[in-house]
Design brief:
elongated; 5-stranded antiparallel β-sheet; alpha+beta; 372 residues; 6-stranded antiparallel β-sheet
Length: 372
């Protein structure tokens, strides 16, 4: 798949750039009978005619490849006529081989081009479906400025097992960030279950504990509904770690209910501090295993403060020595950045720290309360 993608991307510049490669190939082909005429009888250049055919078929498409192949066959015929060897066994074998190879190359190019068109169509459908599930966050909700970053561990996917969403209630902004057990495209169904439940309930005026209880019930039903009963682990070990945040418009506080999720990071006056909730609840989907009160913990969140929410794709990323990414140490340097530059700086720093593709999905949301 990766080799196919590289060949696809290599082909596009040639097509966009015009006829440079076909023109050079045509020049090389026409030069063969000319040069061949002046060479000794025991030296023949016909075998190189397949090279320009292959190059054009691979990098410029089947139509230009077919025209180049026809030109190569004509060049070989002209060279044979010049030397009066067209009817000899050698030239006939060369001619047959060139025609056969040219047909195979053009056929391969046609099949590859058709596959590229099909993949492009599937990619557009996939991206549209994923954008419906994980909608872009608004840049502002009430007095809160918002920015986000997302990276899927699966190549070519925009959405994996991490999720976030924002909703407006009366005089408050509510935000959900979560991490479905698993990663990549296989987690999209569970992500959609959680996000759908949050969007349906978050805008209502229910208190935060009631909202989280509704999420738990919806997620437990959804995970059980789509579980595979033949796989024991699928029935009993599917869950979603999540944090639900509520920021009142007119109060300098933030209320947080954590369902087994990582603590948010408060950036205040150049310092970075983890906000550890007093009574964390079990992950969504596992609330029925124990009594869950979903008690919110309240922290000061004053105008100008930043709040960074993230998933374990950030904190469990490792460098080449196996050391976890030190988010708390790095975040203090970004404490004065606004949400957009903040998530951009963190994402670039994380990518440089890992020095390669991420092994897990990663999501991060930065919030800043604006002054009244």
């Amino acid at each position: 798949m990766r080799l196919w993608s590289r060949l696809s991307t290599m082909q596009e510049p040639t097509r966009a750039g015009g006829y440079a490669l076909p023109a050079m190939s045509a020049g090389l082909i026409m030069a063969v009978p000319v040069v061949d005429y002046f060479l000794p009888p025991d030296i023949h250049l016909a075998h190189i005619l397949v090279v320009p055919v292959a190059l054009v078929a691979v990098f410029s498409g089947p139509r230009r490849g077919a025209v180049t192949a026809l030109l190569a066959v004509l060049a070989l015929v002209v060279a044979g006529v010049e030397r009066r060897t067209l009817a000899t066994e050698n030239v006939l074998v060369e001619l047959g081989s060139l025609i056969l190879l040219s047909v195979l190359l053009v056929l391969f190019s046609h099949l590859r081009e058709r596959g590229q068109h099909e993949m492009a169509g599937l990619r557009r459908v996939s991206e549209a479906a994923q954008s419906v599930v994980l909608r872009s966050l608004p840049k502002r909700a009430g007095p809160v400025v918002i920015a986000s970053a997302y990276r899927s561990a699966e190549a070519g996917a925009r959405l994996g097992g991490d999720l976030y969403a924002v909703a407006r209630a009366a005089n408050a902004t509510r935000l959900l960030i979560g991490d479905v057990r698993g990663k990549g495209l296989g987690s999209i169904g569970d992500s959609e279950t959680v996000l759908g439940a949050f969007r349906a309930a978050a805008h209502r005026q229910a208190p935060l504990p009631e909202l989280v209880a509704t999420l738990e019930a919806s997620v437990r039903w959804g995970l059980a509904e789509f579980a595979n009963p033949r796989v024991e682990a699928d029935v009993g070990e599917r869950f979603v770690t999540a944090a639900v945040v509520e920021i009142p418009d007119n109060e300098p506080y933030v209320h947080i209910v954590s369902c087994g999720h990582l603590p948010p990071l408060l950036l205040h006056e150049g310092t970075a501090t983890f906000l550890n909730v007093a009574q964390p609840a079990p992950p969504l989907g596992l609330g029925g295993l124990a009594e869950s009160a979903y008690t919110p913990t309240t922290f000061v969140f004053a105008p100008g403060d930043r709040l960074l929410l993230y998933t374990d794709g950030v904190t469990e990323a490792r460098d080449r020595h196996g050391t976890f990414y030190p988010l708390l140490e790095r975040a203090a340097a970004w404490a004065d950045l606004r949400p957009g530059p903040l998530v951009e700086a963190m994402t670039k720093d994380l990518q440089a720290y890992v020095a390669g593709p991420l092994d897990d999905d990663m999501a991060a949301v930065a919030l800043q309360r604006e002054g009244s």
